[in-house]
Amino acid sequence: MMKICLILVLLFPLIANGLQTCEQCISSGNHYCADTKLCNSPVCLNTITVALNCPHAPNATYDDHEARTKWLPLFGAGATNEKMAQKCFDNNWPTMKLSKRILVNCSDPSPILPTTQCAMITAVDTTQRILVLSFRATVGGTQMGEEILNYFVGKKQFFDVGMIFEFFYDAYVALWNGGLSTEIRNLKYKYPDYEVWVTGHSLGAALASVGASWIVKTGLFNPNNVKVFTAGQPRTGDYNYALWHQNTFAYSFRVVHHHDIVPHVPFQYEVVDHDKMYHHRTEVWYNNDMSEGSPYQICPEADGLYCVNQQLDLSWNDHTHYFNTDLNVYGDQGCPKKN
């Protein structure tokens, strides 16, 4: 009996250590094993070393049907002109009405590059009590080149919650100063208790992440009334920003299609300044063509080795096609309703 008690005394610290939560394990300087759900498991295929990636289910429910019938037309409408944006709503969401389209110069200040523009729309549904901010994706090779070059230029402090990429920060501020600030304050005054849906694809996805965070940090809206839904989002900010975002927004989904290349950039470990960049939760990964009825995974980590980060072969075509729709033409066609 004495021997058994002695063994239990000796083993208790190991057992207790193993049964720690993921966050407790990492905060104590150890690693957590996603496979065994134990701290410092000696054999582990999926090791977690940062609290951001501790496995968690989302705080909201993802709805594939809603994604196809509501969110897809919203970022389609944000990618086109006023006339076709309203047609996107008429075809898919008749009670949603365009409020304003904002188009600004968001070029890199370099004198050798031509002017590029960023765009977004606001919209209102007084029946369902929803305000919308939808941001346009990258347009053209020049803007794409600016984004890529700026990955190596620098980042800017985002309030007190971390850093975001300079290009995304400057582009959002250009939109904010170019009419969004006045527009969103007017909408808030007219519809003070409406939900706010913020969305976008590609560059628009990064701007949606920044935009939702901005209107919360400036005190305009409570995060519990803000929903964030993005498609093909590049990494937007650093670890602190990602952690703050996912601890702030209960409803925040990043949809990723199959081998889409853009969610992999910029790299988590950047060669130039050694800054680690992360996605915030919650990734929804469709490892297929995203046709109606396709399965998807709700990823347990924010930006770990689950889901799309398992992929080595990357695709631009998957970036431009979401929910079995070619986003290059979808908005300009008035977001034709799926049969």
UniProtKB/TrEMBL annotation:
Pfam name, any one: Lipase_3
Domain annotation Fungal lipase-type: ranges: 132-269
Signal peptide limits: 1-18
Coiled coil location: none
InterPro entries associated with the record: AB_hydrolase_fold (IPR029058), Fungal_lipase-type (IPR002921)
Keywords tagged on the record: Signal
One record GO biological process: lipid metabolic process
Domain of life: Eukaryota
CDD domains (UniProt xref): Lipase_3
Record protein name field: Fungal lipase-type domain-containing protein
Species, as recorded: Caenorhabditis nigoni
Gene this protein is translated from: Cnig_chr_IV.g15913
